[in-house]
Design a protein that fits this description.
It contains 7 helices and 3 strands; from the N terminus they run βααααβααβα. It has 147 residues and is mainly α. A 3-stranded mixed β-sheet has the order 1-3-2. The longest helix is centred in the middle third of the chain and has 21 residues, at 48-68. This is Peptidase M13 N-terminal domain-containing protein.
Length: 147
């Protein structure tokens, strides 16, 4: 028996835990979250003048993410959600995000059981749960500036 590990990609867990917190115009939790983001940005030495604008842009992006996620009640059929593909295929189908660079950065200081650095090439296979979310994300990303 040969055991292999495989990387998995899924839609994000939302910071406010429920899609409704993002899509409702103004609510207490959303306003408190906005203040928290602003305060953290200031603690990280962002200028106070731009921290509010940056916090609003972060919430705007997270709201856009919430709007393209699949609701939990649409995610029961694992066979339908499960897609195995190579990073090369992802590059062809989802060109607006460099998944190979992402995985190599995430794993840059991680080694396997033999002490060998883990490197993802275009033939590396990953499992995608909910390819439709990634397709929507790929269309969304060009609307936002890289940071």
């Amino acid at each position: 028996v040969v055991f292999r590990n495989i990387a998995k990609i899924d839609q994000p867990a939302l910071n406010l835990f429920a899609r409704d917190f993002y899509v409702l115009a103004e609510n207490e939790e959303r306003l408190a979250y906005l203040q928290l983001i602003r305060d953290v940005l200031v603690l990280l030495h962002a200028p106070a003048e731009s921290a509010t604008q940056d916090a609003e842009e972060i919430i705007e992006f997270e709201t856009a993410l919430a709007n393209i996620t699949m609701a939990d009640d649409q995610r029961h059929d694992i066979a339908e959600l499960y897609t195995k593909m190579t990073l090369g295929q992802m590059k062809e189908q989802l060109p607006n995000f460099d998944w190979q660079l992402f995985f190599n950065q995430v794993f840059r200081e991680i080694t396997d059981q033999n002490g060998t650095q883990i490197v993802f090439d275009e033939n590396a296979e990953v499992v995608v749960y909910g390819i439709e979310f990634l397709r929507r994300l790929d269309k969304l990303l060009p609307e936002y500036e890289k940071r």
